[in-house]
Amino acid sequence: MGARTFVVAGGTSGLGLEIARMLTVDHRVFVLGNVADEVAATTSELECAGTTCDVSSYDQVAHALDEVSRRYGAIDGLAHCATMWAGGALEEMSPEMLHKAIDVNVLGTAYLLRETLIRMREHGRGNVVYIGAMAVDKPRPGIPVYRATKNFGKSLVESLAQAEGTSGIKVMQIHPGPMHTRLQERVGAEFLDEVYAEPEQVAREVVRLLLLEPDDLYVSGQEVLRADGRW
């Protein structure tokens, strides 16, 4: 298979940017970001396409993926890296922050996967990689809302993968630990473990999964990597 088309949601910084950078070497990449200036800078640097998209808006997600389909036809892969940090005790979080975290991490994930899978099923192939978090594996003080919203994505991916079965569509996930990204800066040093992975290390694994062939004997839905630097 030659050049393919990949969508990278949250592709303007951190892990998403590294994934997009690796893919643009041989493939068509369309990045989604919620800040227009960052989308413009990324598309200029990587010489790829992209658009501003708030994933918590169903209309914006559908419009963005329609644009990808119009430009390139089939969508071969989605790297879903868009997420919102929501740290702090539940009682300390404003209703507005709670609402936004759920909109982005829950509804945004459902919107992206729904619209992507609809388009992939039209062509009978495609790979989806959801970027979760190690926080889903073990309760951790100070992040109840973030953990709950990321657990939604984990559960959704598992169910979707089961539904796809052995079709040409693979729905997968990885759960990175702390990385040197903008999200980690927002998290703060108290959540930075002694061992961490660099974004480019995790990006290589995501790209490997995105490039799997439809008939590769890889189990859709398998939690393929807990990327905490210990591999």
UniProtKB/TrEMBL annotation:
Entry annotated with the keyword Membrane: no
Matching Gene3D superfamilies: NAD(P)-binding Rossmann-like Domain
Record-level Gene Ontology MF annotations: oxidoreductase activity
Family annotation (CDD domains): SDR_c
Residue ranges occupied by any Ketoreductase domain in the UniProt entry: 4-177
Recorded GO CC terms: membrane
Keywords of the record: Oxidoreductase
Residue ranges that the Swiss-Prot or TrEMBL entry lists as coiled coil: none
Highest taxon, organism lineage: Bacteria
Xref: InterPro entries: KR_dom, NAD(P)-bd_dom_sf, SDR_fam
PANTHER family: DEHYDROGENASE/REDUCTASE SDR FAMILY MEMBER 7B, DEHYDROGENASE_REDUCTASE SDR FAMILY MEMBER 7B
Family to which the UniProt record says this protein belongs: Belongs to the short-chain dehydrogenases/reductases (SDR) family.
Name of the protein: Short-subunit dehydrogenase
Organism whose genome encodes this protein: Micromonospora pisi
